Amino acid sequence: xxxxxxxxxxxAAGLMASGVAAENGNDVVLIEKNDKPGRKVMITGKGxxxxxxxxxxxxxxxxxxxxxxxxxxxxxxxFMPSDTIDFFEDMGVSLKVERGDRVFxxxxxxxxxxxxxxxxSQDADAKRIKGTVSELIMSEGKVEGVIxxxxxxxxxxxxxxATGGASYPLTGSIGDGYKLAKQAxxxxxxxxxxxxxxxxxxxxxxxxxxxxxxxVEITVTxxxxxxxxxxxxxxxxFTHFGVSGPLILSASSHMKNMKERKxxxxxxxxxxxxxxxxxKRIQRDFLENSNKNFINALxxxxxxxxxxxxxxxxxxxxxxxxxxxxxxxxGKLVNILKDMKVTVLKFRPIEEAIITSGGVSTKEIDPxxxxxxxxxxxxxxxxxxxxxxxxxxxxxxxAFSTGRLAGESV
Length: 410
What we know:
Layout lengths: L3 E5 L3 H12 L3 E6 L6 H5 L8 E2 L4 H6 L9 H6 L2 H10 L4 E4 L3 E4 L4 H14 L3 E4 L2 E7 L2 E7 L4 E3 L2 E4 L14 H8 L8 E3 L3 E3 L3 H4 L4 E11 L4 E12 L3 E3 L1 H7 L10 E6 L6 H14 L18 H8 L12 H12 L1 E8 L7 E3 L20 E3 L13 H16 L1
Parallel strand pairs: 1-2, 1-10, 2-6, 10-19
Antiparallel strand pairs: 3-5, 4-5, 7-8, 8-9, 11-18, 12-15, 12-17, 13-14, 13-16, 14-15, 16-17
């Protein structure tokens, strides 16, 4: 049976949902407030668009969704990363797999992904209008359409809310989907940034601004419970305010109830070496530079920008001759290299977050259809739902899978 369907939001989830719904014979109208669709997709992956992750065991996918991952079991089952890859390649976009099983367009252009989604929606005959939905039209527990901010009323049998979250508001994600959900009686959990850079206490972060560290290991500890909450290996970046980069963004999604100094990040600058191996490596370097000052003997071990910071943290005078450094002094240096600590003060603003943590409560959405349990004919897809994942293409996969499921369900 053909339905009149309204999809709100032409992002990753909305474009997918509108195309699928129209493909299945429904009369679909896609409402988007921006002049162009997919504004947020255009900036993902630094403009390259990490479109999905090449994981194809459902439990591996869910393990990368720390917030309400099990809710996505049906959506992922229906549309896996392999399906996403097939979808875009069928649309003429060649893809490649990079480190960490991250999938990108071969062109490294996010615009290729947006163009393919846009073409899919339009080829399926989903109509599009520019506008902002201010409220839902509802009657007796059922959605009947929407009202635009200019007062125009549009009627439909089904409405899919795919408005995104509250991060990157310049792309149009300003949380208006939460308002619509609340109007329908839904609980919206606390909205906070996720996959976001961190403000840190230590002044040396500013001294190291712009320094990218590769192949380091970080361990995040909760200073209140004394528990390790996250550990991983990869790349991070120092900034004028603290730390950022892939490792840090993923770590941020584990930090709950953020407050000053609750979390510490311990950086192992040489994770491939044990304490003993690192000590022997330093002894070899010192032997080759025995008459040099300490500050001039670390260039083979560390990036140049990092040397003065490590020297200061070690407590060894920069002018100390290498042949005068004792075993205890060397031990302090090893400890700093294996455990360089930064203290987290707060998240950067939600405007700088890649995604939003929080959203429409998953308890009030049917995971097998994405339909509201409270309002018949109302569906949700994408970041507006209280699910969020790590970096690596998982959040876009959530958008595609939930958008696909909502589009089929209407």
